[in-house]
Amino acid sequence: MTELSKTGAAMGEPTSSPSNAPDAFLAVRDLKVHFPTDDGLVKSVDGLSFEVEKGKTLCIVGESGSGKSVTSLAIMGLHRLGARGKNVQMSGEIWLDGQELVSADPDEVRRLRGREMAMIFQDPLSAMHPYYTVGNQIVEAYRVHHDVNKKTARKRAVEMLDRVGIPEPDKRVDNYPHEFSGGMRQRAMIAMALVNNPELLIADEPTTALDVTVQAQILDLIRDLQKEFGSAVILITHDLGVVAEIADDVLVMYGGRCVERGTVDDVFERPQHPYTWGLLGSMPRIDRETSERLIPVKGQPPSLINVPSGCAFHPRCPYADLPKGDVTRTVRPELQPVGSGHFSACHLSPEDRTRIWTEEIAPKL
Amino acid sequence: MISYILRRTVAAVILLLVVTAVTFAIFFLLPRMAGQTADQLAQQYIGKSPTKADIAAVKQNLGLDQPLYVQYWHFIKGIVAGATYDLGPTTAHCNAPCFGYSFKNHVEVWPQLTSRLPVTLSLAAGAAVLWLVSGVLIGVISALKPRSFFDRTFMGVALAGVSLPMFFTGNLALLLFTFQWPIFGRTYVPFTENPAQWANTLFPAWCSLALLYSAIYARLTRSGMLETMNEDFIRTARAKGLRERKVVARHGLRAALTPIITVFGMDLGLLLGGAVITETVFSLPGIGQYAVQGITDNDLPPILGVTLLAALFVVIANLLVDLLYAAADPRVRLS
Amino acid sequence: MSETNKTEAVKVGAAAASDEREVLLRVEGLQKHFPIRKGVLQRQVGAVKAVDGIDFEVRKGETLGVVGESGCGKSTMGRVITRLQDPTGGTIHFEGKDITRLNTAGMRPLRRDIQMIFQDPYGSLNPRHTIGGIVSAPFRLQGVEPEGGVKKEVQRLLELVGLSPEHYNRYPHEFSGGQRQRIGIARALALKPKLVVADEPVSALDVSIQAQVVNLMDDLQQELGLTYVIIAHDLSVVRHVSDRIAVMYLGKIVELADRTSLYEAPMHPYTKALMSAVPVPDPKRRGAKSERILLRGDVPSPISPPSGCRFHTRCWKATEVCRTTEPPLAELRPGQRVACHHPENFEDQQPQDTVLLSVAKEAAELVPTEEAAEADGSEENPEASATDDKK
Q1: Are B233 and A126 within 8 A, CB to CB?
Q2: How many beta carbons lie within 10 A of that of residue A171, not counting itself?
Q3: CATH classification of B109-334 is 1.10.3720.10, yes or no?
Q4: Which residues in chain A are contacts of B226 at CB distance < 8 A?
Q5: Is the ipTM of this complex over 0.85?
Q6: How far is B225 from chain A (nearest CA, A)?
């Protein structure tokens, strides 16, 4: 994959004409996000493609450093901002409702941010400004995109706080973030993100910092609001339990690339990639009592500077020697359809994959 | 909040009492501990070749023949309620706060301090505005474009600013702009008399002082901003679709500036106690200059007065800084 | 809790255990309060009752899991039983010896027997020391010279936890989170401790790495006969690693039972709610008619915990007696101790008290509304407690 030559420099230049705009509400095509560092080029996202329709939820799973958060920030256009924004090398296409964002004018993307697409973050305490009241911050989010006076915006903020289930919203609106509990803060974050009725909501580990009982409340809330507003949701998580709970589609990332993509049933019932098997085997289950050992993925996550040759997962893959020759070490597997709407990037033959899953992995889960 | 203010104020008063005790100890107790007798002390205050009667008079006036705790009591009482000195044929009443009389020219210390305060205040306030504005501005721009040409240039200048002593920059400014090309005035004019003249005279001093401080503030702001702009809430602000300018000003600067309040308050408090070197270099009749005069003349009461006044400013600045911080950062208010 | 009740409970519990194991650590009435000071004079106006009277014992060779939401006092409990913090009240017996009030010197020999593993593999290793220095520190501090020399022993330990002995001279920053946690474990095991208290040992790690560390701890327990107290918020991990589990809520143990009983038939409503909230990695379960309990609101403040049963403000079964009387932690079934007036999966302890508190009424009334709402599929008040039949 040496298409980067056309990419890094091609920031202002549209890489494709609007004529081939996809039908999907959000379509990401061959997205690459690379960060030059003193140690070398960090290929955080290296050729990622997926689509999300309105009313659907896509869960992106993967370990830390797999590129899942970088992807979400890329969609929001947040990498280009700030002191380090100039160095980021981005290429590929991100189509949001027929508009391409990678080559778009930054100010145009800014106008979409918060209005068409909004984001909630992992730690709501650090994600809110400690010096401004919760209401103030929601009002600000509303007034960026709506030409209304403060009073109207404040009414809207109270309305949103009420909608996300904060008791006495007309009083809590004047509280500071630190005066909220963790769950309330995340609700307020959601209120802030949804104040402009965005059509795309990106949630980056929205419940990781919360207790399970609060997590259940927040997931329920996200699900309800999605139903109500019909927006597309991208939820980034490392918790397969959350995925099973809320996802329509699942995208498994490893080393900056997608290794498997499919519906939630595909990925949980008929997973087609050894890394997905590894994730499922690593997870202790609350619903079953097994005295059996967990089946961890051996070794450590890959370096994003020196990504392993061939299949990035091969050093950790127990089946790397099955395919003939050293194809796993030399050839990078492309995402291949393995079922309707189900893709996997693996050199194993379909027969091997089915056999290993049904005979070796599934019985132990 | 009220309890907080109250607690801080009580602490400030206690701190001031401690300062008076320490100051008193330095000026009256330490010499005694070093083995000096009351007579020797009194002799020192008068100067060359005193008569026996003079010594006795001074000893009595100063209460040097009394036990130390009584002396301290008189000292405190003088400050709070004023004191009456028996000068043989006449008595002199010195109104509260009484810091005593200069032994050199028998002028009361407190009125001297109050008359010189506006000069020091003018110097400090003017310089503070200059350094705060320029320091913060340079710091912010440097932080937004780290490692850029601007950043490197200004941080280099900043380093020079911190390193160069006031003797050098001050005298250089004086030499160039007051003597070589007399753009600026030489003698201090009070603001109330002629504001233009006032600013004109003080300007070189302001700039010299601001150069020193703005360097520090530029560095402080830069590191604060660099840290703040990496915070999660900045990402949130951007995710709202705010313009970058607003993100920096409303979200970044607000958080980065709060810690600077502390440093600024302390610096200003210290300066009000007398910018000794600057006032000397630019011959400004301020409190610092008064202190220098006292030191060269071995005239203890003015030095003592300046010390206490400086302490008062620092303590007040400290108190104000704490209250301001609580006002700026809502998280402090609760705890 | 009455004295007779307690001793009886212990006896029954011990008899019920398949192998009657010796008690290694016994904790009785343990309290840890953090004072709150206020006003001009900084008088103590109250206390954060982080741990407020808990009893349990840990038997040799077993793993006791401690679960609860943040702020329930589980971490404080861990630091108090290892005497990193002094308890406010109660007693701690280790191998029959009262260690509650031992001073630093008295605790010194015991530090060999009781070790702790911390959550943050980044913060708990000194970045300026080599791995060899970190893992050999316990030998130096205790003045122990292991057989074959310190270096050899440290290298053996590194191998034991799955690291290479060549890592001896490296620094912590050269390692990933999972490897650092292994280093922390090697350090904790250096002096062959009898009890290892692990506070969230895997929660900072990625799933695949988490499984590696869980397996490692499992192997080491079998190999070295270790006793673990594992404090964690992840109920799936706790289910996997523990023999017995204590559920904490607002500084109290509300349920203490063996793994199977607790997960198959939880008696305390809080345990039930907590477990039903954990998402199951199985999309088929979404379609199943599994009962899901959504607790309302947040955990109350440990500064002024609710009267009576501390859970009554969020419980859908709460009655008047729950508000007034604190339920004792009683052994209702062999090996299952519960502090509840109206337990689940068991006969009501206060059957005469049937009038629901208003909070409970609200929750109870919501059940049918919920089901009706299922049809149009959107109307639901997330703030209200509800027995949510998931579609």
Answers
A1: yes
A2: 11
A3: yes
A4: 83
A5: yes
A6: 11
